[in-house]
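Data card: per-record layout.
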Amino acid sequence: MPTTFLREKSLPLFVLMATVLVGCNQGDPLPNGYAVFFASGSEAALVKPATKGGECIAGPHVAELGNSGKYIFGRIEPKKGIPPHPDHAPGFFVIDSDTDKVTTGLDRDKWLTELKAVGVDSPQLHPPEYKWPKKY
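The structure for this 136-residue chain is written out next.
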């Protein structure tokens, strides 16, 4: 009888701990020194502090991003009343973190085609808050 009681009480605790651990997972870190920079609650950009002095590489309105191997990819969302960065067109983007080559302004189909060409078949996008490292 005590074993059943212990199992019944342990299961909710196990489920709670598993939920916390999964929720805290930040995924793979961004490669080659790239980081997410949060200028405000609505402005997230990709920066490369080590070699670019913290220069904005993509953004400032990165809505979603992900990475696979040396590639960082995502979507820049235009904001009403705020002009986009002249070098970072709204739409989808791909960064080769080895060469720092940035391609922005892609529509979804061109983005998927470009990623597939470099071996990323199923890109997974997440809010910038889920990626690391972070800079504030």
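Known properties of this structure: The two ends are 54 Å apart (CA to CA). Helices lie at 2-23, 49-52, 108-117.

See the next section for split statistics.
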